[in-house]
Amino acid sequence: MQKIQSYKPLLISAGLGSILGSGIIVGLSSTITVWQTGLGLSDGQVGIVSGALTFAIAIGSLLAGKLTKSLGLLNAYNNLDLGFLAGVVLCMLAQNYWMLLIGAVLAGFFSGADLPISLTMISHDAPDKKTSAELVSASRNHWRRIDRVCHFDTVGNTFSSH
Fold it and tell me: What is the pLDDT of residues 24-55, one digit of tens each?
């Protein structure tokens, strides 16, 4: 456990990347009805945006290795969040279906690519396999924290709306 403490800044940074990834999923799914009403989206368009986000996350995860090979591990790790931010800003400022769809695809792709790269980054400089495994395992705590927050938020909203 002592070894993990020396990697705490990297672990926190990678964990925040995990929170961003789960945040876009929860954020879009919990606000899609607001977008539907505000932008006048059809049920089909809502389904396309939700599906596009899911597929973009999967494609980002699948292409993470190629991104790291072309950009380098550290460069990819440091710059993926800029693409994610561009997608989130597009979603926030969306004035129509296409802006929302493109924003969801960008945010999804970059958050999908971030997770495997973050996990690789965490374990990259670990002195041994045991420390590497402990670091990757510790990063899972960030996912659990966001899951709990989302659960309590959903339960709270359910009870407050009745």
Answer: 888 888 888 888 999 999 999 999 999 999 99
User: How buried is 156 (Cβ within 10 angstroms: 0-12 exposed, 13-18 middle, 19+ buried)?
Assistant: exposed
Whether the predicted model's global pTM rises above the 0.85 cut = no
Q: Which residue has the tokens 């402990």?
A: 134
Structure tokens at 66: 């190629």
Structure tokens at 49: 């945006």
Three-state secondary structure string covering the chain: CHHHHCCHHHHHHHHHHHHHHHHHHHHHHHHHHHHHHHHCCCHHHHHHHHHHHHHHHHHHHHHHHHHHHHHCHHHHHHHHHHHHHHHHHHHHCCCCHHHHHHHHHHHHHHHHHHHHHHHHHHHHCCCCHHHHHHHHHHHHHHHHHHHHHHHHHHHHHHHHCC
